[in-house]
Amino acid sequence: xTDTDIIVVGAGPAGSCAAIAAAKAGKRVVxxxxxxxxxxxxxxxxxxxPRILDELIxxxxxxxxxxxxxxxxxxxxxxxxxxxxIDYRSNAWGQAPYNGATAYRPxxxxxxxxxxxxxxxxxxxxxxVTGLLRDAQGRINGITTDRPDGDLTASVVIACDGVNxxxxxxxxxxxxxxxxxxxxxxKETLSLPKNVIDERFGxxxxxxxxxxxxxxxxxxxxxGFIYTNLDTIALGVVLKLPKLSAQKKRPEEIIAExxxxxxxxxxxxxxxxxxxxxxxxxxxxLDMMPKMVADGLLVAxxxxxxxxxxxxxLEGVNFAMASGxxxxxxAVQAITAGNTTASGLQSYTKKLNETFVLKxxxxxxxxxxxxxxxxxxxxxxxxxxxxxxxxxxxxNPHPKPGVRxxxxxxxxxxxxxxxxxxxxxxxxxxGFG
Amino acid sequence: xxxxxxxAANNIERDATWAEMSFQExxxxxxxxxxxxxxxxxxxxxxxxxxxxxxxxACPANLFVPTSDGGILFNYENCFECxxxxxxxxxxxxxxxxxxxxxxxIVFHRT
Lengths: 433, 111
What we know:
The complex is a heterodimer. By secondary structure, chain A is an alpha/beta fold.
């Protein structure tokens, strides 16, 4: 007899959804969190797209601790002095059934974990899982923790222990870890009065703005972001690890340079940093994913590298919630069927393959690499802003140069060969599906 | 208002107007519950042979400080627990990285 049916390691969005799904099905679930409360170790550059919660918590939008609903979605290209902003607005996204939202992860993750508790899961915080237990056949059947007498056995362990997942690595599910598959996200939470944020970003009430930035990261491959909370702005950069160390610029210096950009500075004027944070992001999509099933073990969320960094789509929390939910459901099925070996747990892989979780990743497999490639990072922002500069600058008495001439001259100035431009365009068209 | 003062007002520098902060002030905005056990240890001997020193640049908490004798001074207390240091480290065995005791370490609030 095991201590419990299912142990979920990590009470982030993956772990809590796994626990909700399993507890709702009547299984005994222990949800273990190393922080003093769920969400206390978590930060993101982000927007939460909670649609997948409809299945687990139908009235989630009436209760979830949301800051603002995103009604403006912008993609910004920055050169040293120029900025092109493609901005889509839909006030409908600020009303039920909603689309994306900003939230503080310590609030949101804690709320979601409390839904697991309400469904019957037992939440244990301030406890670090230190390893896996295995039975005589080598099948995983529990965990060790840093608590005295803290070993715990279960039929299935679900590892939702985040981007560094020691459990997935311990179980041998990852190939050698390659730093170039990861980016470092650093973020400032900047305090401003709500009415100032509303005015500067052109929103009201709990309407919010999401700005994704390409360029402006001081020559380090990556990107930037700005999100509005009620009375704070989240501003940060994501930085590709090997390039970051090669460029000899520290993360906080790169943030400072982004904040000084003429298109960014007026948005955050007078704002005070009230919290600085950092976190790794599994950025490489399908190509870095581990095996997600072993005997007695499932892996979900960032622990399984289920984070979508595809340029115009930057999502993670929804992939975590979905994969966690499917892992919880598969664990329940396997326990009920009396087979918790890897073959008994295969319904998890099947479900991931059938849903957006792996379908999106397969479709967009090449995009994370394209977005972080040197040309897209260092040549295209200048190329595109250069075109805009020439298109909209009126140089009378000279007549307009014509679009084709501008394109040709700016492409040459940016040092992009026609062949590379066509190749990248095709990769983009094909890759974005 | 004279024409002179109007001209002056017109030329007010409108660049960065947020308060500059020191690195320590930046770190002080985050809450760290410090445990007496170091959850990350750095083997100074391995660092002495390292020429790239990637951790020194990349660690967002700036916890790796080169010493004059070619080693690395490391302090675990203000660690974000991100994992960047062991990811970028080129010297096998130089960094031993674990999570802090349950309930300790970084505690985020508005992230």
